[in-house]
Every structure is written in C-alpha cells, then in structure tokens.
Amino acid sequence: MPGDLSPLGLSWQLATSHLNLGTALVLNGNPEAAEVILEEGLDLYRQLGDDIFAARVTHGIAHAALTRNEIERAEGLARSSLAVFAEQGERQGVAQGLEALAAVAAAGGDADRAATLGGAAAAVRETIAARAAPFELAVTAPFMERMETAADAEQWHRAWEIGLAMGADAAVAHALPVVGANHACAARGDGQLPDAHACLHPLCRSRTVARLAK
Length: 214
Hints:
- By secondary structure, the chain is mainly alpha-helical.
- The chain is 72% helix and 0% strand.
- Mean pLDDT is 84; it is low at 1-8, 179-203 and 205-214.
C-alpha cells in the first residue's frame, strides 16, 4: 500500500480509489502502472472480505494483461473473476467476465469461441437491461471487431446465435471448462456430486445446492 495513503486507514473507499485509478491507467495506455495499483486494491478488498469487488479488480488486471498481449495470463485472471461473479449471482459481473473471455479468445484467434461467448454475454445483458460500460468496451471491442472482420461472416453469426441461446449457467460452464481427475463430476457428465464440497465449479455448485435443498 502506498505510504502516503496509509494514514487514511483500511477502507472500502480507499480500495475503490485503487480500482478506479487502475482502470484509468489501463485506458490511458499504462497497463504496467495499472497492475501495481490494482494489485494494491485487490489486497485491500481481500482484507475487507469483499469478494465481488476483489473479483472486479481481478477483472481489471485481466484487462491490463490483455492490453499487454499476455493472453494466457489474461484468460486465467478473467476466468477467476467470472467464477466468483457466477458463484455470487452477480449478473453484471458475469456479462463482463464473458466479454473479457470473448476478447481473450479473439486475441488468440479463436473466432468460434469469441463469438459464442460474445453472444452469451449479450444475452445476459438483455436479462438485466444493462449495456457494457464504455471503459469496458475500450478494452474488449477492438479485439472483437478485428476477429469479426477476419472471420467468416456466416460462421461468426452462427456462433453468436449459439451464445445468445445459452442461459447464464450454461454460458459460465462453457467459459469455465473443467477437466481432469480433480473435477469430481467430469467423468459422470451429469453435474451431480456425491459431496457438496467436492467441486468448486460454479455450475456444479449450483446444481449440488439445488439437489441438497430438495
């Protein structure tokens, strides 16, 4: 934490000032400085126990990584924040996370995934009647526009429509694929867990909670 701010003490307002400044630095073309500020904000939100805003900061760091062309790192950060948004039922954050992952896919040259996730994000936004903020679009839109221009128009439209038809849970599951032995229900394919604590994947958690509530 910067020494000149420490006398103010630990507060949500201080953490949010880091989030806002870090976001501005990304938009002004200084992602390196942005990450330093955002990491400080992330530490503050974690100390305050604010998981949703900690996820928002992680989302901002993903944007910074994406603008630096650190595609794999951006993807990991975007997935991490999306998982929290999905678990908390934060639909605005889910839309933002899907948009970030769509831009990551576009940056990596995966037109089908970019369009599908972009369509899914648009569908989530329709359910909450909320447009993407200009500062979000400033980061993600250039990647999506370049990919759409390079892709086959019919294929892009078809993938976008598939995303639009997804529900939020299906979109999150598509964006956060889980494979391997550590995924308790991966081999079963039905999302039903023998142990409510066996899997942290948002879709599996929601299905398990629903099953146990019956």
